[in-house]
Amino acid sequence: MLRKNRLFTPGPTPLLPAAQAAMASFSAHHRTADFRALFTRVLADLKEFIGTQNDVIVTVSSGTGMMEASVSNLTSPGDKVLVLSAGTFGERWIGITKAFKCNVDVLSAPYGRTFSFDEIRARLTPDVRTVFVQATESSTGTRHDIEGIAKIVRGNSDDTLLIVDAITGLGTTHLDVDGWGIDVIIGGSQKALMIPPGLAYCAVSDRAWQRMETTSSPRFYFDLRKERKAAAKGEAAYTPATSLYAALGAALDFIRRAGNGNLSDGRAMLVDNAELCAEMTRVAVRALGLKLFSASSGAALTAIHSPQGIDSGQIIKEFRESFDAVIANGQGEMKGRIFRIAHIGYYDYLDTIGILGALEHVLARCTATPVEYGAAVRAAQEVYARVSSGKRQLIEA
Amino acid sequence: MLRKNRLFTPGPTPLLPAAQAAMASFSAHHRTADFRALFTRVLADLKEFIGTQNDVIVTVSSGTGMMEASVSNLTSPGDKVLVLSAGTFGERWIGITKAFKCNVDVLSAPYGRTFSFDEIRARLTPDVRTVFVQATESSTGTRHDIEGIAKIVRGNSDDTLLIVDAITGLGTTHLDVDGWGIDVIIGGSQKALMIPPGLAYCAVSDRAWQRMETTSSPRFYFDLRKERKAAAKGEAAYTPATSLYAALGAALDFIRRAGNGNLSDGRAMLVDNAELCAEMTRVAVRALGLKLFSASSGAALTAIHSPQGIDSGQIIKEFRESFDAVIANGQGEMKGRIFRIAHIGYYDYLDTIGILGALEHVLARCTATPVEYGAAVRAAQEVYARVSSGKRQLIEA
């Protein structure tokens, strides 16, 4: 059977056609009025998409580049920082803060779980200058309670910064950035924004901009103050990835249309969409007798235990070979034990039902257990029918 | 929920991404060596795709334009012609042959049925100069037995031409053009070739080229001999739709790759793919208690009776509003009575299972009958599991 390349990975995610078209046709030079207009509009739209009054900075980098920027701009060697880590991306915070010679305290939660508020309170001594956490830990599918964590951090000291990696969190979970007092929130282009990798973005609070005046960690390419200064003139400090800006402009236009002219409503609809895809997937997975890996699954992706005795690599291989569908293996020590199906970004009903139907064939081929065809799909359909009966949401591509 | 625009119509069909990219980036002028090379390659590839040694002609037109070309080039006013008609597209042959003042005999079969060989034999007197028929009647989903019809025509007289509209037949049904003695076979770009509308093509037998020397119907734009002469120099007689040629070149490359370097094997794989999508759809439709409209359904599309008391327009509206999925209503007097789901071209497992899942919700919303979610999908999955267990076909986009 014909097989279309199908991404069900938590980034890169399926591309928005309007963004592909914009990207393919864009060729303006970056030091021109045309590009400055696009650049300025994209930055303003990103503020609205994130839902913040804080200044937004975009870098040509992966999300990890912006994670590094938040460390190199906001810490000095020897700073006491607290990293909340419950997976591979939490461990990335540890790696970066150590590389920049912070005095790193780590509060770990087991993979697939989130943090105890009491333990956070116990670790959050007044001398902790910065707290680093994920909104969604993409390696396990776990959503952390950023509202609750922010309350604790803000209650600690006005001097403690909260840095949130929301690379898979933005557009899959509600985040009141300014209301909760998040000092830096980080996103990436290849996630809910439905465009290719290559751009990362963040919103920076006044408190964090002030901190940058005193920090001494080395930075040059990722110097956020330099980018802020350039952005005030409608430019990037260094050569921007022009075609990706064009794609981003088109994606933000799409999200605004989906929100009937309002980018934050468009973002809320993306969150609702991911929530529905995730709920359909969770009930389908349970209907097949499989177990979810995370105790508090978010909507960005669903992590699923591989069936007893089956390396999850086999599941992933079978998806690829039979359906050209790319789903994600576990990372680090979870490799081989779990597989992950993403819901972040550009997925509709047909995609979701299609991949769940495919999952039934994959299990039938990989395991000795007989699979009742249609069981997972039916469970997902019942969720869809219930949710969509009340309202018919109109997000058109 | 987010809704992607999903075409399930028997043309235009979903676009091949590689063809979209080729189309978007192409800008060569048509009177250049670059375009001549593309033009010549596309014509040679189309011969291999059709599976013929006959010369192929491409026109900038819809398929109907090429139907007209076959009439205006191959008939003279007063010619006795036989039209085999069993639907809207059979009726189009009647309209065109009458417009060109042929002496038209019509053998009709009821909508949804095909022709009796005995009746064809009875009508096929030696003075019939040309026979017109569809390979697949797209308005009803019916496949006609072109091999059997060709045998009768070839047995009638060497002077009787057989003209086959295979606009939805090419790439969904096996056609041995030269072996069966089809004089003109007609295709369109927006069908199995997976590119937008705008190009039509045909292969013309030596017998038909000879007939053109003596026919007197008026023609200018569609003068096939003029196009043949221009094609020998790598050109079109009039300005060709350059970007569509670029798309066609990319589509034919894709089909060749799908056939491991062989275009006719690639075409056979497209036929197998459509057959599997069609079989999955037929069993799913029956599992829902719905009835097929055609007594001999082809693989291009499936026509389905609307449930008792429901105008099929409601079904179509519900598909569009809930899923942004476009399926086809009946045409002419079948409008409101049937709906049609296409399988021609670029569809994979996920598309097929997705639209069948959607069909269950559409029925649940449009009818009073309770729908057992998953029943249609399960029936389709069982077909897929049976067919795909033996071989794993590798057609990659």
Key features?
14 helices; 16% strand; 397 residues; disordered C terminus; 7-stranded mixed β-sheet; alpha/beta; homodimer; Aspartate Aminotransferase, domain 2
Summarize the structure.
Two copies of one chain form a homodimer. With 397 residues, chain A is α/β, with parallel strands linked by helices. Chain A folds into two domains: 6-12 and 261-390, Aspartate Aminotransferase, domain 1, CATH 3.90.1150; 18-258, Type I PLP-dependent aspartate aminotransferase-like (Major domain) (Aspartate Aminotransferase, domain 2, 3-Layer(aba) Sandwich), CATH 3.40.640.10.
Give an overview in words.
The structure is a homodimer of 397-residue chains. Chain A has 397 residues and is α/β, with parallel strands linked by helices. Chain A folds into two domains: 6-12 and 261-390, Aspartate Aminotransferase, domain 1 (Alpha-Beta Complex), CATH 3.90.1150.10; 18-258, Aspartate Aminotransferase, domain 2 (3-Layer(aba) Sandwich), CATH 3.40.640.10. Helix content of chain A is 44%, strand content 16%. Chain A has helices at residues 17-25, 33-50, 63-74, 88-99, 117-123, 146-156, 177-180, 206-212, 224-231, 242-258, 263-287, 312-323, 349-366, 375-390, and strands at residues 2-3, 6-7, 55-60, 80-85, 103-108, 130-134, 136-137, 142-143, 161-165, 184-188, 199-204, 301-305, 325-326, 328-329, 338-342, 395-396. In chain A, the strands form four sheets. Chain A has a seven-stranded mixed β-sheet with strand order 3-11-10-9-6-4-5, with helices on both faces. A three-stranded antiparallel β-sheet of chain A has the order 12-15-14. In chain A, β4, α4 and β5 (103-108) form a beta-alpha-beta unit. In chain A, α3 (63-74) crosses α4 and α12 (312-323) packs across α13 (349-366). The longest helix of chain A is centred in the last third of the chain and has 25 residues, at 263-287. The two termini of chain A are 27 Å apart. The model of chain A is unreliable at 392-397 (pLDDT under 50). β16 (395-396) of chain A pairs parallel with β1 of chain B.
